[in-house]
Design brief:
single chain; 8 helices
Amino acid sequence: MKHKMKALADKPQSYFRIPKEHRSRSDWKSVSRILHEGVGRSTLPCVKLRAVVDAAKEISQLDSEERTVFPNASFFDGKVDNVKSKTLGADDFLPIFIFCFVQAKIERPSALCELLSVMCDPRKMSGETGYYLASFHAALTHIHELDLTENDRDLSIIFDT
């Protein structure tokens, strides 16, 4: 897992199939910082869970702010294109979350995911916390199952053809 995270760390947002209209000019650094510090460095499981939720909310907030400041612009891979802005949906959220998960450089993410799943209050699993914890697990699973050799040959992922 560690080698995959390292290999993915330098990939652009387009590699993760983040739609053009939702690519962040800041590379989602505030979200990655929340995950790195709140999930990766804190010791209490409840603080780690809160950070997962906070990071997810930051994605929506940052996307909304960047669309307000630059309503017809999409910043990606150092270029600006005019694209139609749209609301952030679940299909758009997960690729962004995966990108931020990789950028956060969380140590031992598999063990951490298991810890959070076990420690999460069962009553919260059907609410907001459960949804974002499931997103955290989905990001981990996606990276774990990713075949980097196959994706490196598929240039359409990188160049949005």
